[in-house]
Amino acid sequence: MKTTPTTTLWECSEGQGGARAAIELLDRIKWEKYAREIMRIEEESYEPARRDSRQFFARTIRAPRGVSLVSLRGEQVVGFAFAGPLELFPEVQGAQTDPEWGKFSTLYSADVTVAAPYRGQGIGFQLKKRQTEQARALGYRFVAGRNRVALASAMMRITAAFGAYQVQYFDNGYGSGVEPGGSVYYHIDLDPGAGVGPGAGRDSRERQPWQKPNR
Length: 215
Description:
- Helices cover 26% and strands 26% of the residues.
- The protein is α+β, with helices and mostly antiparallel strands.
- Strands 1-2-3-4-5-6-8-7 form an 8-stranded mixed sheet, with helices on both faces.
- Helix 3 links the parallel strand 5 and strand 6 (142-148).
């Protein structure tokens, strides 16, 4: 069985203020170290309907074949990404109606977040890139996730850059009374022929953003 390596996945020698920028795999030990900062960023970034709980994150980290990442500037948390096998998230709208449900073929991207002062610096893109790379290394065929229409435009651009296409659409994806409530449920095809990343593969160059690959 393939296992997740415990290494730094990406680093840049000069981050903001000269601090080293890095993305690392987030295991249980690192979660205990950084949980308070991660929860602070989560609460500052989302309205209550879209916030994930500390228990939710801890469950995701414990899951076999999970991919949890933390982005650091020195020792400061500036972003994170949590993902686990699709079947870990039966409560998520769209999970059980995903055509891949029950096949254990899909990594569900539950949360990709960058702290407000560090947005627009490519950190979200790097988190998504390392997430898709790890998903492929672990033998997944797809990455799935949801983006809230109108309030997640930056994340939608990033996922589109990795070949995301709409699988489902929900008018009320985050509970009654939450506006705008529309959300896109997407797949990223990790098959080498589909291409992962901007311009990767002929098919991803020729199709429009959010268009399903030809198969």
